[in-house]
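Repro:
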Amino acid sequence: MATDVRLRRITPPIAPRLPAAPVDYDRTIQEQYSGFLRLYFNQLDSTFSSVLGSPKTVSGASVGHPGGAYLNFPYAAVQRTTDKTFAANTATLITFDETDYINDCRNDTSNGLYVNNAGIYNYQYSVQWRNTDSQIHDAWIWLRKNGIDVDGTGSQFSVISRHGSVDGHIIAAANFYVDLDANDYVEMWAAVSNVAVAMEQYPAQTTPFIMPAIPSCVATLSFVSSLPA
């Protein structure tokens, strides 16, 4: 059985302050000088091993961690735990009331997701659409950056009709790369062709089987790369 290990973050090595060389040779000073350099090079070796290393199999057990396991990147994972209804053919901002995970970003529950560091980010979403009507209706989702629509991020979904006594449901999901500067924010916007279509949440259930709650909408924002020069 694999051992559950909490990975530590890499401690950046700091260049030592080397002592000034004496006029005459001094073995003690020379050994002290070498000791400072040895410690610094050991720190560099440890750092590069953590980033570039790969796990090895020893006696059938995995030893070590893959390169990058200790790296720390900005990210956010949020969800909406309430329904979201719409007026027909009206662009509407989608907000998120619960933050699951976040690092060096900010969830403005009345707006979008803010970043502290510039970079290319991957924005992903998953929406639980519900249709209470007996006809299929359409829904749209797109992204805005700092209040301006982001070209090429629109998606159209046809939400199936109600069948018998059961509302129609679909999961709408997509992901897009977005370039953001420090303090920029990205929002999700949506619209529907008929008021019968809404984003629907469902509480946890115990029968006929146990299942966790279904959020009406979830979104994640993950740092991919620094901005191109």
